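Morning run. Coffee first, then this:
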Amino acid sequence: MMNREEYIKNLRQFWIDNEVPNISDTNAKFLRDLIKIKQVKNMLEIWSANWFSAIQFWLELEKTWWKLTTIEFSEPSYTQVIENIKAVWLEKVIFPVNWNALFLIPELKETYDFVFIDGMKRRTKDFFDLVYDKVEMWGIIIVDDVIKFKDKMNWFEEYLQENDINYNVIPIDIDDGIVMVVKEEETLKVRVEKDY
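And here it is:
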């Protein structure tokens, strides 16, 4: 198995050289701390890029009995994901899927205690809405790039406010940050009441 530090260094250099959009080291550190505190067991990642974020998550997830499902729409990126997973022998715990997340999420039968959304920004609201009912009570949903690309997210924050979903915008990098939602019982009741 390739040395972890060397592996991460190689992936980081790849996305710098090829301008692949990936989470920053600062963001990765924050998310890893969150995964560690939450002791995440079953995680869903929406859009993998070249798998730099997933390898960061793995460094924490491997410490518990865990599973990671990662969805990637781009076939070239998906091919890289497969190659990277095989390089570190994680085929039995990481499950990559090459599909459009908008069509796949409704078909998922599992529930998740941590979801990381980093897909097409204009569909952020759709990803969130589709995945919400797949998240366990007190599970965490993280949406990336909510400051830098707020204008591309089609009123995502307004959608959260309209549905009485408690959220926090957390600045992580100098020019960007995340939205964090913890699924609460009260929020669930509000959503159910609005559906009837």
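The chain has a mean pLDDT of 86. Good start to the day.
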